[in-house]
Amino acid sequence: MDVTQLAEQVIAGNRRALARAITLVESARDDHREQAIALMEEVGKSGRQALRLGLSGTPGVGKSTFIESFGMMLIREGLNVAVLAVDPSSSRSGGSILGDKTRMEMLSRERAAFIRPSPSQSELGGVARRTREAVALCEAAGYDLILIETVGVGQSETVVAEMSDLFLLLLAPAGGDELQGVKRGIMEMADLILVNKADGDLKAAAQRTCADYAGALRLIRKRPQDPMEFPKAMTVSAIEEHGLEAAWAEMNTLIDWRRENGFFDARRAEQAEYWFGQEIRHGLLRQLEREPLKSMIAGLAGKVAGGEITPSHAAADVLKALREGYGPSGP
């Protein structure tokens, strides 16, 4: 593969090339990883930036419907929108349905939109292993706004906040004890809480839920990157497209304030440092999957299962071997 040519096609806005580039960075093969690193270096020269929106919420809250309605509204305003939807992978088979695109029928037909579903595989935190690099590729391809939809499984989906400029939390009304259902972990990361399905019989319940969350947000310790009125809770209806323009206006208000006060660039710098650490951690884990450490671990695992050695002792032996260079590049 000619990485330079692929990078040029991505920067030129070629959708097929963008899809191929994302497939390349998602590959786990060592030779593909080397090409992916070179590709990211090339596309980084474009210097383009997009607004990155992370979106999380429990299953059934209407994330796909919201993204379609919100995306269509942005396209009508003349913006190009990319959607990176992370789909849960089976813990048994490892497969994913990847059906998010079929649920965004109108948006998927728009030339100004790009939708890419990806499997979460074994990754925690609601995003896929290479979602961050897929975001950078979409930026280089000229998209103005990138929506990152998480798996949608609960409180632990905060990793998306490390690759987005704004983190939106989508909630449904009348879901029981809402303040217990989504605890402080994810609420403290949210920049905007949107109570969806504020229409029909659920409209009154949505307004009550919104008021509950607005009160809860006032109890959370103030963050330096927020103006006085943020974070805040709002009601929206993805079906009736009610409240979407107001939510978009609030997003722009918050982003503009952060840009003016230096928090936008500072946050991106922090995120780059975070992902540098993550790359090191994943690289070290990959070392453990290669010979001869792989065989050593398998042997120790058998001894641990047989009660011949404690898990802590076995782990210490592996780490000692890794420190002493007993790996692919060692003796």
UniProtKB/TrEMBL annotation:
One example GO MF annotation: kinase activity
Coiled-coil stretches noted in the UniProt entry, renumbered to this chain: none
UniProt KW Transferase keyword: yes
Keywords: Kinase, Transferase
GO cellular component: cytoplasm
Signal sequence, renumbered to the chain: none
SUPFAM superfamilies according to UniProt: P-loop containing nucleoside triphosphate hydrolases
InterPro entries, A to Z: GTPase_ArgK, P-loop_NTPase
Annotated family: Belongs to the SIMIBI class G3E GTPase family. ArgK/MeaB subfamily.
Protein name as annotated: LAO/AO transport system kinase
